[in-house]
Every structure is written in C-alpha cells, then in structure tokens.
C-alpha cells in the first residue's frame, strides 16, 4: 500500500491510496477474497416464504439461488446447471410449483437441489442424482435475513457476524430486543451509487461530515453535529434532541417504541457495521437495514429496508416521514461518495488522503481490507 507515509502529525492517519478505489484488479481480488469468503446478507428470508419461491442474488462473481423447499426449509445453491453451465434461474425472483428446470437442455432439479430429471436420464443409470445435483452454498438466517457464504470452510458466523454487531453495541443481547426477524418491510429503496463500496463504508463509519451535509439528521441527533459517530462509543446510543418526538424527517411522533425495548433504548439511535456489506440502524419504532452489492470498482448497488412492526405494515400506516429522514441521509451520503470517486484517479490522491482524529477508527477498516487482500 502506497500512502502519504509515516511523517504525519499525530492528528492525522493515512488513508488507502487512490488506486484501491479504481483498479479493476483490486476489485477482482476483493470479490474473490472478501465477498466470496465472508458471510453476505443476501435477501430478506420472509420474502421467500412458500415452497417453490426463489430469489437470485449476485455474491461476488457468483449468482446464488435461494429457494424454499417443499419441507419449508430455505436453501442456497450456485445458480448453475451441472450439465453445461447454463444459468438455471434467469429471473431475479419467481415461483415454481415443483422443480427448477434449466432452460437450455431441461435438466431438472428438486427444490432440495437433487437432480430429478433430464432427457434420456433413465438410459444413464450410472449418474448419481445427488452428486450431480446443484452445488450447495452455506446459509444462516439472522435478523430475518438469509446470509450466505461461498467459502468451502466459512468463518464462524457467531464471531464474524453476530459477534461483530453485538461487540460494537457493547451488549450481546441489545440487538435481540428489536426482534428484527419479526419485523416486516415497510419500504425498500434501491440506490445505484457510482462509487466504490469502500467509500460508502468509510462514509457510514464517521460523522465528521454530518454537520456539513446532514441538516435533518443533526436536528434529530444534535451530538452528531460534533463530528463523532456515536456507533464508535461502545454501548452508546445517540440521544434524540429534547424537542424531537420521533426519528422522522420533521421530528414529529413516530409509532411508539417496539414492544421489547426498555426505557433506556427509547429516544436513542444505535448503528453498527458488519463487514463487508451491512449497516444496521436501530431506533425505537423501526430498523433501517442496508445491504451493499458491489458490481464494479466504481459502482455499488445499495438496498435499504425500513422495517416496522407487523401492525404498522398490515394496517397501512403512513411511514413516509420516518422513511424520508434516512432516505435524505442516504442521498446526501451517496452524492458525497460520488463526488469523491472521480478524485480517486487524480494525481492529488495518488498516495491517498488523511484521517482526522474523529475518523481514526476508519484505519481499522483499511487494515481489515488490506489484510484480506494480502
């Protein structure tokens, strides 16, 4: 890594060099050594809720198929026919009654991945229908999402996902009180961000920019105007302004805190990152869950879910004021990242930039990335 060097004053730390955000070769390494080896939040499990429902998701360089079996179990497979390598499911989502059939030569697989039929298969009795079934992918469910890992030997889910989130909150049981798996999607917005995925992570990790570009957010969370991200004080939730009633764009009342939250969690905002692609935001009446899908060195798709109690969603309550607050935050953040992306190729950023004290924790993320690529 070529950076500004070691002769910086103590207030400054060097960032990654500019080519880490633009070089297609580095992006390919990240796909192989980060996104294809770590747990990846692929989809909201409750949206694949009945036998035969499926969803395809791009994870690193692989298309992954999530499908609900006839036994009610959600499973994950590589979305590749074992015959000649055609993409098995070409649609992003759908439903099949009994089986998954390749559109090329009609090799057909059960919802459990087993090969069940193919033209002239009965004339080939030596073919093991399990051995030539779909290639399985490791999957776990947590917070209502299906997390997949392409690695042959996945890292510990408890350590790298659950542990990473709960350690940042300083309380292993805090996130459980939101019962995120029981919430429902009240709104989903998909953003096509013309910036490297690391710029988005770095932006989410710091609040040095909050007073500059997030006027609505700092009205609700005034301590963010000081430039220190509350998520990096272990166990600390940023407190709402005294006159603010709810986590809404105008500070008006929300829906009342979720059932199992204590008074200590009321009127507070908590946020955590789970490397490499998840941001979780916890507020008293809802949860905001970001998933990133890096598609190129300079382009990232971000899916953002606003999750509410079943009652709020089922009764069609107006969620627009709470959605609008973080939608504006997202737009402001992603606009900033898109302004940075072209400069990553500038000679001014050849050796990178610097981090001020309230951003020093970003250096841990940079070390995590370079360690994975080493």
Description:
- With 374 residues, the protein is of the alpha+beta class.
- The protein has two domains: 40-149, Rieske Iron-sulfur Protein; 173-373, Naphthalene 1,2-dioxygenase Alpha Subunit, Chain A, domain 1, CATH 3.90.380.10.
- The protein contains eight helices and 18 strands.
- The strands form four sheets. It has a seven-stranded antiparallel sheet with strand order 2-11-10-5-4-3-6, with no helix packed on it. The protein has a six-stranded antiparallel sheet with strand order 12-17-16-15-14-13, with helices on both faces. Strands 7-8-9 form a three-stranded antiparallel sheet, with no helix packed on it.
- A hairpin with a 3-residue loop joins strand 14 and strand 15 (278-283).
- Helix 3 (197-205) packs across helix 7.
- The chain starts with 12 loop residues before the first strand and ends with a helix.
